[in-house]
Design brief:
The protein contains 3 helices and 5 strands; from the N terminus they run βββαββαα. By secondary structure, it is an alpha+beta fold. 5% of the residues are buried.
Length: 84
């Protein structure tokens, strides 16, 4: 996901933030915790009946998340999202 936010810096009008989200039903909380433990980054939150694993730190995205998906490519329709 790419998020565009108002920048706290007066010189820049917007701030661009990259974000990786993985969302599962809350019954899969243990799985999500294991994923977070595997990557050693990100956070887990709950939204209604969903468990959300989120990584926003740029270095974690570049050094951990993206290399994982290069080594183990996503298949199916989600592969097109990844390529974007």
């Amino acid at each position: 996901m790419i998020r565009i936010l108002n920048s706290p810096n007066r010189l820049l009008k917007v701030q661009v933030q990259l974000e990786f989200n993985l969302i599962q039903h809350s019954i899969d909380e243990q799985l999500m915790r294991k994923i977070a433990e595997y990557f050693c980054c990100g956070s887990i939150s709950f939204n209604r009946e969903a468990c959300v694993y989120r990584v926003i730190k740029f270095s974690d995205l570049v050094e951990k998340i993206i290399p994982f998906f290069i080594k183990y490519p996503v298949v199916g329709v989600k592969h097109l999202d990844y390529l974007d």
